[in-house]
């Protein structure tokens, strides 16, 4: 796995190098020069709001009486650190999700099982929101014929594949498929590690059931926050292109952002979507505006925002005495 991630990283770097070679960098720089301090501040403010919406969705999936605003702040900071780890150490077989779980356990006493279950549910709700968001974007694309037939076909296939995967994953959680299969296997081969794994799966299924079946209000609220976050992504793109000096309509921003997010979802195996994200911007914004360098400029604005967020997450992690070496040591210990 580590070797594959390194290969994917170099593949992304190679794709990025091709883009930088093919696109007029001086023109992209000229577009970037129009951004200005107000544009930068606006982009950061929009993303902070979107990040808070995603944190609020996670907040609603966390079981127990933790609906005080204090917990929203705690989860916001845990996400900030976890997402930074997710971006900076992609080749170490250590994603940001275990970091979030460890932070909740070590600093706030949330059990590993509870924290992990809440993250799985939050991620599922996020992807369900993406399906809805991208489906609306695809419908708008079909209606207005902004992009060509090839773009519509690729986007449509992407939505269908994503929907099949996410809804299947949701069904596994909602109806306890994993624990049922494990129970059948355990009945044929009782004892040992399988019985232990079955116990953990049943515990997870109980948490999933408590959320999906018995707390529909929280599920709807989490989905609402997630959809708001996806919409803010379109707002961010709209604002970026407006400050860069080439305004588009909000509908065009929604359509373009929908396809961009499908590109990011499809290139999940590349660390930080390096190269793939930039290619999506250059191709889609170039097709929409006739200015590929404008797409690169917009991609660089968003990448700079991501880097700033990573720096903030790393700084917060160090302040909390939560460095990569500490995380590795914690993960090496037996978990409850």
Mind explaining what this structure looks like?
The protein has 336 residues and is an all-alpha fold. 82% of the residues lie in helices and 0% in strands. The chain is built from 14 helices and no strands. It has helices at residues 2-22, 25-32, 36-61, 69-88, 96-108, 112-144, 149-174, 177-188, 193-212, 216-243, 250-266, 276-289, 292-319, 324-332. Helix 6 packs antiparallel against helix 7 (149-174). The radius of gyration is 21 Å and the shape is globular. The two termini are 26 Å apart. 39% of the residues are buried.
Summary, kept brief:
The chain has 336 residues and is mostly helical. Helix content is 82%, strand content 0%. The mean pLDDT is 83.
Q: How much β-strand is present in the residues?
A: under 5%
Head-to-tail CA distance between termini: 26 Å
The radius of gyration over CA amounts to 21 Å
Shape category: globular
Helix count, DSSP H or I runs of 4 or more residues: 14
Notable features of this structure?
336 residues; mainly alpha; 14 helices
Write the layout of secondary structure elements.
Blueprint: H1 2-22, H2 25-32, H3 36-61, H4 69-88, H5 96-108, H6 112-144, H7 149-174, H8 177-188, H9 193-212, H10 216-243, H11 250-266, H12 276-289, H13 292-319, H14 324-332
Helix pairs in contact: 1-12, 2-13, 3-4, 3-6, 3-10, 4-5, 4-13, 5-6, 6-7, 6-9, 6-10, 6-11, 7-11, 8-9, 10-11, 11-12, 12-13
């Amino acid at each position: 796995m580590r070797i594959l991630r390194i290969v994917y990283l170099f593949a992304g770097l190679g794709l990025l190098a091709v883009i930088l070679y093919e696109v007029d960098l001086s023109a992209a720089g000229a577009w970037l020069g129009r951004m200005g301090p107000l544009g930068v501040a606006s982009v950061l403010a929009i993303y902070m709001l979107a990040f808070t919406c995603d944190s609020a969705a996670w907040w609603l999936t966390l079981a127990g009486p933790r609906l005080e605003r204090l917990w929203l702040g705690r989860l916001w900071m845990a996400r900030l650190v976890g997402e930074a780890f997710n971006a900076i150490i992609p080749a170490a077989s250590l994603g940001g999700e275990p970091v979030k779980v460890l932070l909740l356990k070590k600093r706030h006493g949330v059990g590993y099982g509870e924290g992990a279950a809440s993250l799985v549910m939050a991620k599922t709700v996020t992807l369900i929101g993406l399906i809805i968001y991208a489906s609306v974007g695809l419908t708008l694309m079909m209606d207005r014929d902004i992009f060509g037939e090839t773009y519509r076909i690729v986007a449509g296939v992407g939505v269908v594949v994503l929907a099949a995967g996410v809804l299947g994953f949701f069904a596994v959680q909602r109806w306890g498929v994993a624990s049922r299969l494990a129970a059948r296997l355990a009945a044929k081969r009782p004892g040992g590690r399988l019985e232990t794994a079955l116990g953990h799966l049943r515990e997870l299924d109980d948490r999933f059931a408590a959320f999906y079946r018995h707390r529909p209000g929280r599920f709807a609220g989490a989905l609402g926050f997630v959809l708001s976050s996806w919409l803010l992504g379109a707002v961010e793109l709209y604002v970026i292109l407006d400050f860069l000096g080439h305004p588009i309509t909000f509908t065009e921003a929604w359509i373009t952002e929908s396809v961009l997010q499908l590109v990011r979802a499809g290139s999940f195996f590349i660390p930080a979507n390096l190269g793939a994200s930039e290619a999506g911007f250059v191709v889609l914004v170039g097709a929409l505006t006739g200015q590929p360098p404008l797409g690169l400029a917009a991609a660089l604005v968003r990448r700079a925002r991501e880097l700033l967020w990573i720096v903030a997450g790393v700084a917060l992690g160090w302040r909390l005495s939560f460095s990569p070496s500490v995380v590795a040591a914690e993960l090496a210990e037996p978990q409850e």
